[in-house]
Amino acid sequence: MILKEIKYSPFSYKLKNPFQTSSGIISERKGFFVSALDELGNNSISECSPLPGFSSESYNEVEKFLSNELKRLLVNEIKSDLFKIKQIASEITKLPSVRFALEQALFGLVMQHDKNFIQNNFYAGKKTIPVNAVIGFDKPENILAKVEKKYIAGYRTFKIKVGRENFSDDYELVKLVREKFSNKITIRLDANGKWDIDSAVDNLSKLSEFDIEYIEEPCKILSCLMKLAEHSKIPIAVDESLKTYESVEEVLKMPAIKFLVVKPVILGGIIDAAQLINEAEAYGKKIIISSAFETPIGKSTLVFLASLASHNHAQGLDTADMFVNLPITDPYPVQNSHIVFDPENFPPRFDAGHLS
């Protein structure tokens, strides 16, 4: 397979409600769509969308690369070979969000040439994937209303953002949610690295009475997370501290950490993410695939990756309805808090008009 054309186009979509975390407010999602065309006229569209405050690269760095370097892909013959696809993408760029987009685009083309590509390279089958609802900062009464609405819609796992200026506000909120819904829901917390280790020890001790599945990133520093994990009654999940797949490999060897929240668009390669899922299970750990507010184009590959996990913990993929007037139909809508993935219909086809 020979690439005949590759191009990109910027996008910017507003979120229906600005999403506040302890790290800041996310009000829009900016990025780029990449379209690859082969010599037979097959087209594949992928997404490149670094997330400010989380990604190691900036929007401007990505745009500069796409403008100056993207055409380097045109000299490559693309084969139905995982190692070769990974090699091509990694040799062209070290920018994680670009590497994600390049691998997604090449996957899309290869699978149009080789219908057995997924079956030959991955343990992939039809799967119903549970997802969690994400609840950002808001007034307590509004949060309770949001949880109630999602609960009625079928959700049973809720990730609630904590890390307010006064911990007592976090505590009272979690208490309200647990008292209202008792043991009918699973609660996860996400502090986005807001606390120092001394505060985290005290805060987690107080929150442990509420039967929390895990808390993401109570501290920013990985060594602090390790210390917490060894003593906390609440399991610790690592998220933002995972800067590279090498750092993920390091965490896999830490026995006290049981959950790793992986955002492939921030870490980079899709192939590495798939291999990581298998490796984590060998260590007895759970990978939670999490969206970084991708559009349905980027999300489609996250759904594929989530389908590879053998565990049944909820994944972080409930973001499609957060956008205002999104002109892209989501091929993997959340229905009754689940997404159905069928490898026979992967990858989904997207209209190249989104690049015009």
What does this entry look like structurally?
With about 350 residues, this protein is an alpha/beta fold. It has a domain at about 5-120: Enolase-like, N-terminal domain (Enolase-like, domain 1, 2-Layer Sandwich). Helix content is about 35%, strand content about 20%. The chain is built from twelve helices and twelve strands. It has helices at about 60-70, 80-90, 95-115, 115-120, 140-150, 165-180, 195-205, 220-230, 245-250, 265, 270-280, 295-305; strands spanning about 5-20, 25-40, 45-50, 125-130, 135, 155-160, 185-190, 210-215, 235-240, 260, 285-290, 340. The strands form three sheets. A seven-stranded parallel β-sheet has the order 5-6-7-8-9-10-11. The protein has a three-stranded antiparallel β-sheet with strand order 1-2-3. Helix 7 (about 195-205) links the parallel strand 7 (about 185-190) and strand 8 (about 210-215). Helix 2 runs antiparallel to helix 3 (about 95-115) and helix 9 runs parallel beside helix 11. The longest helix is centred in the first third of the chain and has 18 residues, at about 95-115. The radius of gyration is 20 Å and the shape is globular. The two termini are about 25 Å apart.
